[in-house]
Amino acid sequence: MKGDWNNVKFLTLGANSLTARGVEALVKKDNLQSIKKLSLNDNYLDANAGTLLAAGMWKKIESINLNFNSLGCLGLKALASNTWRTLKELHLLKNNIAN
């Protein structure tokens, strides 16, 4: 991803066969810190992707849609480890999260 993405507020990459490798590319992108809404629903995201997302610098993120992935308990635990100061919504429907 090249170019100036500083003005991007909403990024939707649902149903794109995205994996942890794609998430890694996103979190390495310094100029995506302005994103408020990130939708990664219906991809192939696993616990590793959850760990990568949690480690990202999402300074303005308010909403993350991770519905219909495979984050599992470990991915949820990783996401819960971030303080997410601005996060208001976290969508995790159908992610193989069990007791």
Describe this structure in words.
The chain is built from three helices and four strands; from the N terminus they run βαβαβαβ. It is an alpha/beta fold and 99 residues long. The protein has one domain (10-91): Leucine-rich repeat, LRR (right-handed beta-alpha superhelix) (Alpha-Beta Horseshoe). Strands 1-2-3-4 form a four-stranded parallel beta sheet, with no helix packed on it. α2 (47-55) runs parallel beside α3. The chain starts with 9 loop residues before the first strand and ends in an 8-residue tail after the last strand.
**Element string (H = helix, E = strand):** EHEHEHE
Instruction: Give the neighbour order of strands across the main sheet.
Output: 1-2-3-4
* Helix share, percent: 25-40%
Q: Could you name the CATH topology?
A: Leucine-rich repeat, LRR (right-handed beta-alpha superhelix)
**Shape, principal axes of CA atoms:** globular
In DSSP terms, counting alpha (H) and pi (I) runs of 4 or more, how many helices? Answer: 3
Number of domains: 1
CATH class: Alpha Beta
Specify the biggest β-sheet: 4 strands, parallel
Radius of gyration, in angstroms, nearest whole number: 12 Å
Number of strands: 4
Quick overview of this protein structure:
The chain is α/β, with parallel strands linked by helices. Helix content is 26%, strand content 12%.
